Amino acid sequence: MGDRSQSVSAENLGPALLGRLPSEVRKPAYDRAALKPGIAHIGLGAFHRCHQAEYTDDLLAKDFDRWGLVGINIRPPLLVDTLGRQDGLYTRLIRQNDEVEARVIGSIVRVVDSQDSAAPALDVLASPDIETVTMTVTEKGYCHIPSSGALDLDHPDIVYDLANPETPRSVPGVLARALELRMATHSRPVTLLSCDNIQTNGIILGNVVRAFAERRGRKLADWIEANVAFPSAMVDRIAPATTKVDIDTVERRFGYRDGAVVVGERFRQWVIENRFAGRVPRWDLVGATFVDDVTPFEHLKMRVLNGAQTTLSYLGVLGGFEHTFETMADPLLARFVRRMLTEETLPTLMPVPGIAPAAYVERSLSRLTNTAIRHRNHQIATDGSQKIVQRLLNPIRDRLAKGEGIALLSVPVAGWMAYLIKASARFGRAWQVSDPFADKIAAIADRIGTDSKALVDSILAVDAIFDPSLAANATFRAHIIAALDGLLSNDPMGFVGQVCAGPTDARLKQSARSA
Questions:
Q1: Is the model's pTM score more than 0.70?
Q2: For residue 219, is pLDDT > 80?
Q3: Can you give the residue ranges of the Mannitol dehydrogenase C-terminal domain (predicted)?
């Protein structure tokens, strides 16, 4: 690949440039001018552009149909100046250590900014052309209670939307209003497909939309029952936040400017519950898998890959590492996470068709060593209170129910606590954190100080995260107290080394006795 930095002023990516891109940049293999919209996507961030939009681009090249994407943001950032200016075109870079592979994706036909008012989003979502609505709105976007999955009726946006249903602000409110408009105008069926990293995401999406609709009246709730599908899905590809280096790479290596570059690893996976209303985008023709039950795939990914990411993020920050790949390069932390997954997590999994669990662990860990994927530990640590239930606490509950050891899985749970505790004033504000429960944990830390048992007692009482029956379990409490004590000590990595040194079930009996 030649270095094209000599160009006087690089041209911006747009339809006019497509025919003149360098040969090493892959281009859409279909006539974009003939593309009509059929899918709307809410939450047009890096992950969607690196995942579902790429699968759709593949599908259009293989089996051209009315599956153009309309991208909608109802939260910042604005799209008009980045993707909008480029007519929805953007570059997807695959980075594997030193290799870079570029491709321009063409599946997004239009972008819609709907941050100030829901009206532009509702126009798209209520259109008879739209037969599938996909979304990546993060865990928080569903306005649900993490420990139960129910709609949070006290959420300020939900309170507002129930009082002002025609000008909604929340995702459940926007979707319910769009469905009401569809019912009133053309009554065409629609599939609402969550692509967020939440277990049973289709069930949770269905719960929050139905619960909202029921408060609008029986007629809408009945129409949704008959005309709307909420399949669950499991999505997988690591796509860190784009940096200036990534944008400069495109200009330097390929000679054009792109303000909407996204970066991902080579691996990708999409498992979708085969439950659609109306026409189906045949993503299964281009690498996605349609299945009757997504649950085994969800457990595998959440508990193994995401469990590893969460564990490495907290222990990595405590150990002084900036990125996942640097944390994985530390022999102690790599050994710890491999043992945790192999000895404690894998036995909690149900069989997954076509996947060998031990091989999946190895592949997941090798993905996390990719030096070109600069995923910051603090970025992965964000919103941990919304993530640890499915990634760590559920496997812990499964093991306790069978009387099995949890010495290793307890460490990252205490890691999440230590991470938030050390951000408090009393602990010197070691770093800034972003988590819905950050203030609550900081207040506990400021009040209690270094007494690990008292800290754990107060944090386990937060029942939106910790199911009361788990919080009351003596073995669980003893392990969390011991782990928090070790991680808040002057030598947190020494403590991780100790846990890793012994046979963990023997440690279980000993620490349960000493507690």
A1: yes
A2: yes
A3: 293-486
